[in-house]
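Dock phosphoenolpyruvate; give full complex structure.
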Amino acid sequence: MAKKIVAGNWKMNKNLQEGIELAQSLNEALAADKPNCDVVICTPFIHLAKVSDIINHDIINLGAENCADKASGAYTGEVSAEMVKSTGAEYVILGHSERREYYNETPEILKEKVDLALANGLKILFCIGESLEQREANEQNAVVKAELEGSVFHLTAEQFANIVIAYEPIWAIGTGKTATAEQAEEIHAYIRSVVAAKYGEEVAANTSILYGGSCKASNAPELFAKPNIDGGLIGGASLKVDDFKGIIDAWK
Ligand code: PEP
């Protein structure tokens, strides 16, 4: 069975003090009312070490939002997978559409990042998803398949066990437009079938496939009730404890 996961992506929000406060409040709320799923918060690099010390890692896992495509050396401003791991983080988000679009991260670059993240013992929240134009042209299945083939399907089955897939239709990210539960379930089932064709049914059944895109407490229960939706990757609604916990509680 695939693990149920609710993961937050803070993006470029919260200064250090605000981030610490948010992590502390979430930690208290979840210690008092234990979640029925794995919870991950992915923060900007500057928060990682402090937040790692604050949270109970048995309840909340920590992740970065990116890592470098090089191992170490003269790459000014970059943060390596090894550095991320050394903070106490367990996860890294790779392939987010904002990084693909604004920072020109190609499938080849992502493949390098994937390999370095795994070599350093990080699990990966690997994002895939189509644009509105691609959805309107009914190309969504081809797009997500190509994104998997381009950056993670070179992995062995053993390595692939460390990949969590986040299906995030670009037209639903931060727009308030959510894919309907039926639309999401349809493509999640397709993604699982693509994983099964590559790695077999057992690996596919054990792969967590999260939905992302304007997921909130009000629509999470309907989305998470679908058999192929194993949780969510949450942007905006991960920035307030009540909103994020409302989504986590959808697993109760
Ligand atoms: C995201 O960017 O990963 C995301 C899902 O954002 P939002 O929840 O704000 O749409």
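Observed: Residues 9, 168, 173-174, 212-215, 233-237 surround phosphoenolpyruvate (CB under 6 Å).
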